[in-house]
Structures are given as structure tokens and as C-alpha cells.
Amino acid sequence: MKRTFAFLAAALLLCACGQDRSQILKVYNWSSYIDESVIPEFESWYEEQTGEPVHVIYQTFDVNETMLAKIEKGHEDFDVVCPSDYIIERMLRSDLLLPIDRDFGATPNYIDDNLSPYIREVFGKIGGSGKDARDYSVGYMWGTTGILYNAKYVTDEEASSWDILRNPKFAEKMLLKDSPRDVFSQIIIYLRQAELDMGEVTLDELMLDSSDKALADVEAYMKQVKPLVAGWEADFGKEQMTQERAWLNLTWSGDAVWAIEEGKEVNVDLRFSLPKEGFTVWFDGWVIPKYAKNTKAAKYWINFMSRPDIVIRNVDVTGYVSVSGAPEVIEAFTDEAYEPLDLSYFFSPADTAVCANPVLYPDRKDIERSTLEHDWGERTPQLVEMWSRVKGESANAMTIVVIAVALLAILASLVYTKFFSRKARGRQAVKRHRR
Q: How far is the C-alpha of 406 from the C-alpha of 398, rounded, in Å?
């Protein structure tokens, strides 16, 4: 945050002195989503590659829609931003993105040279009203949605199905992401399991179903779940899990990695499951907005962020997984403490037995049960209204207690992280508000 204010002050000073806008790069990214030491390195690298100086103005956001509103309604001249998959879809449909030029002269094209084939395939599924999302966006980080659970109270078998959410055994010990899109997608996969098994619909097709019937079915299911829910959370669930105040949490893999590692430090056995019915994957990617003023520096920024050594540093700090399939990346995150995984879908055909963390890199047999969520477009208000009905207007007493304790835990964690533990800082998950 201090660096952001420093950059803003520098930008005002530069503008006051008549600084050419081509020498300023305005980056808008998720909070805690980069190793900030790479920013000055980019400035030096850019000048080495192009012979031109550049100064980065780095700002952050916590909600996709906040970023989108600034560009769509405010016409903010950010040069490069990092939205989630469904927002990339929305921006494409609204003609808010510029194509990303891959011509870097003598500089290597790290984007296309290192991008995982799996990511390239999935980005091709992003709907853009006839536009190929791969021409307008480059992946940054990705992950999965699953169930984080405490093995002391929850069995592996119980956590293997989304129907665990209706199990009264876990009443008041369950947290759900306050994210209608993510919850809806998992539940509709569970509810349509018979149709999926019979081949009447595919997972990809199911993610395009925003019908009244689909909404009604998920709402009916979630109203059975609601009495069991201790709280609806956006970021505090992982702390609650490490403190055993909750036993299971519908969450994202990045949060799960953080919680599992922290749990080990206090002897809490947390695990992460990708339910057998299927699940969704999510992605964040770099794009150049329509109102960008420095598209040249923007494309070099994206290229720099795709360079293997920079990728590894950003992953180490954020705790999330890069879209890079570079050999250096797989080497950096190979860990003999884990069982071999078939990661040939993500890296190379030869990588069928890689010892890596399965929360970060799911095995091929698991990823084959995954699908990509989509933007609901004009149906988004109906999704939000359904979610409001499910949650109700008032929080129960347990929810209030959970939130209060969570806030204190987060404050304590931040103090500890700042002064005592760089390792914990490196695993701190990003606040992702995905509607």
C-alpha cells in the first residue's frame, strides 16, 4: 500500500513536470498478487530492451467489479489490468479490450514460449462474441474450487462429494464462500449428475445454463444447506479452519494451500478435496483495456510477467499457481514429499509422474472433471437475487461471532506476518471477490 501511494505521488510529480505518458505504465492488479520487488526490475529491464525509460504506477483492487466500473464507466486509462475469467469475457463482449501484440523484436516471446497447453486450451473457451480471448488476454494465475476440511472431524469419503454440504453432522461447523457464481456452479454440477453420467449434457454446456429452472433447483438445495452454515466468508475462512472453529469450507485452492501450511504449524490436519461429481477452475489474466495510453509498455509488462524466473518469484510470494508450463517452473515446484502426479496435460507429454503438491497441480484424472465458469451477462441480477434469498437479510449469532473472531485473527496474522514471518507472507492468499 505504501508503494502504491508513492507511485501515485510520483505520477503527479511526473505529470506536473510534463512527463510523456509513454514513459508511464499504469498497472491495476489484485492486492497481494505480486512480488513487488519485480516492479523496479521491470523498469530497468524495459529500458534495456527498448532503450526507453518507463515508470510504473501500481494500484490494487479487491473486487473485480470495482476494477471494471473504473474502466467501463470512468474510462480510466490503465494500461494493463488483471481481471478474472468471467470479467475478461464481459470485457470482450463490451468491446473494452485491445488485442495484445506479440512482436517484441529481439526480446524473447516468453508469453507463447512458456504458456501451458492446458491454459491455452481453456482460454479458448472464454466467450467473447466471436473474438478469441487468447488474442486479448494472457493468463497469470489459476486454481480450483473445492472443499477444505479437517481430517480430525471429516473423513476423506465424506469430503469426496458436494452433498457433504447437507450433512447435519457439520451443522454450525461449515463455512461457504460468499460468492454466488462459485457456489452455484458446484451445486448445479452435483444436481445434474444423472444427466452428466448419461451424456445428456457436458460440464462445459452445464456452465452455460442460467435458466430459471437451474436457479430454482440450486436455490432449493441451498435452502437445505443454509441452516447448517456457520458463516458466509470472503477471506476469513482459512483462519477459522486453522483454529478448528470450522471443520469444512467451500473454498479456492489458493486459500487451501495457505490454510494447510498454517495448520501444520499448529498440528491441525487440513486437506483439500475436488469432489467426484466435478468442480470448476478459475483464472486471472492480463489484458490491455480500451483506454490504455501505453500499449507498448503494457505488452512488455505481460511478457516480463511470463518470464520463468519472475513467474517463480510471484508464485512464491502469492501462494497461487502460475499458468506457465516452462521447464524451470516444474523444476522449482517439484517436491519429493508428494506422490507422483500425471501433469502431462499442463507441462509436457513426458511429465506423467511429477512429485508436486496436488492442491496446486491437480492430477490429470482430477482435472478431467473440471470446467470453466462463464459470465452470466444480463442474467447476473437473477443470480445475485437468488443468492440474497438464500442467505437471508440477517446474520445469525454464530455468523456474527465467526466474523468478529475472524477479524481479530486476521489482525493478529497481519502483525505476525509483518514482523516475524516472511514465510507466512509468501503464502498469504489473495482476497478474491468473484460474483
A: 12
Are residue 110 and residue 153 in the same domain, yes or no?
Answer: no
Whole-structure pTM value: 0.86
% helix, strand, coil for the chain, step of 5:
50, 15, 35
pLDDT digits (tens, 9 = 90+) for 302-356: 999 999 999 999 999 888 899 999 999 999 999 999 999 999 999 999 999 999 9
CATH of the domain at 219: 3.40.190.10
The maximal CA–CA distance of the chain, rounded, in angstroms, is 67
In a domain, 167, yes or no: yes
Residues 198 and 60 in one domain: no
Torsion angle, alpha carbons of 40, 44, 50, 56, to 10: 20
Q: Which helix (H) or strand (E) holds 273?
A: strand 270-273
pLDDT tens-place string over residues 273-315: 999 999 999 999 999 999 999 999 999 999 999 999 999 999 9
| 3-state class (DSSP) for residue 395 | coil
Any domain includes 353: no
The β-bridge relationship of strands 370-372 and 279-289 is: parallel
Same domain, 8 and 131: yes
Mark whether 148 and 102 lie in a shared domain.
Answer: no
CA torsion 253→154→387→396, rounded to 10°?
-120
* Number of compact structural domains in the chain: 2
